[in-house]
Amino acid sequence: MRSIIYHQYGEPADVLQLTEAPELPPPGVGEVLIRVLSRPVHPGDLLGIRGRYRAPGNTAPVGPDGARPGFEGMGVIEAVGAGVDPVLGLTPGTRVAFFPARWAWSDKVLAPVRVVTRIPDDISDAAAAQLHVAPLTAALLLRAVQAAGAQAGDVVALSAAGGLVARLAATLLLAHGYVPLGVVRSEDAIRILSAQLPGVQFVSTQHRDWSRRVYAMTQGRGVRVALDPVGGEVASMLTAMLADGGALVSYGDLSGEALTVPALAFSTRGITIHGVSVGRWPSLPDAVRAADIDTALHLARSQPTAFIAAAVYELAQVADAVRHAERPGKAGSVLLG
User: Fold this and answer.
1) What are the helix (H) ranges across the chain?
2) Digit-coded pLDDT (tens) for 172-194
3) pTM over 0.85
4) Cα 247 from Cα 223, distance rounded (Å)
5) I need a surface site. Which of 1, 115, 145, 190 has the fewest CB within 10 A?
6) Residue 336, exposed/middle/buried by CB under 10 A (0-12, 13-18, 19+)?
7) Please, which residues bridge with residue 110 across strands?
8) Domain spanning 134-279 has what CATH number?
9) Where are the domains of the chain?
10) Which CATH class is domain 2-119+303-336?
C-alpha cells in the first residue's frame, strides 16, 4: 500500500515522501481494517513532522524505519476482526471516521472499534474526515471554560478565530450563553467570519491598538477566559487582558514562541493557565466520549459550511498539500484524498 513517510525532522514539504509500504495484516480482535478516503492536514501533524513534540533538549532523530504522520480521517471498512459487536454496525462497506489511528496518511489503517465512528448518510465525506479532532477539541475547550468558573454573559476570547476549532468552539460557547470574541489577523477575515458567525464579535491584530479594542468590547470588564492555540506574543497579550481571576487555556503552539507572563499576574491577580489536548481525549470515560461524539455529529450537521475543504490533494501531492495548509487566509481545511 502507499504511505507517506519521513526519515528526518524538518520542513514538511521537504521531508515527506510517498512510498510503497507492506500491506497491513488482517484486523485483530476488536479491530477493523479501513480503506482511507480522506484525511485532514492538521497543524499538529506539521508540528510533529518538524520535531516540535520532542521534550526540550531532546535532539534524537527519527527512528531507522522512519515515521508516518496522520491520526484522523475517514474511509470504508474493508475487513472486521473477531469480537466486534454486530450491534455497532461496523460491517465491510460501512463508511466510518476514526481517531486516533496510526498512519492515517496511508491507503489503509487498522483501528480499534472504540476509536471508530459510523458516519450517517447526511454527513459529507469532507465533514467525516474532520469529525474528531476539531469538534472534540471544541468540546474540551467548552468544558475548560466551565471549569474555569466562567458564567453566562462572560467574555471568552479565541485567538486564531478563523480556524475550525475556534469556529466550532464559538458555536458551542454561544449555545451556552457565553460571549465569544474572536481574534484574527485581518479585516478581511472579520468580514468573512462575521457572515458565518453573526453572534460573535471580532478584532484584528492588524490594528496596533487591538488590545484596547478588546478592553472596549468587554466594557472594561476584561476577558474571563482566553482560548489560545498560538502561544508567544498573542497569548501573552491575551493573558494581560484577562480579568482578575481569569484563565488562559492553551491548546497549541502555532507560533513556536515562548509565552511570557509576569509572575505577579498569578499571585496578585489570580490568573491561571491550563492546557487542553485532544490527545488525552481517548482516555476519558466511555460515557463522556460518547457524549462528545454526539456533539461532533451535531456540529457536522448544524454547521456544514464550517467543514468545507479549501482544497483536496492526492497523496502524491503531499508537498503541495502541506504548503497550502499553512497558507494565510485559506478558507477551510486542506484534505489529502
Assistant:
1) 12-15, 43-49, 125-129, 133-147, 164-175, 187-196, 210-217, 232-240, 264-267, 286-302, 318-325
2) 999 999 999 999 888 888 888 88
3) yes
4) 9
5) 1
6) buried
7) 33
8) 3.40.50.720
9) 2-119+303-336, 134-279
10) alpha beta
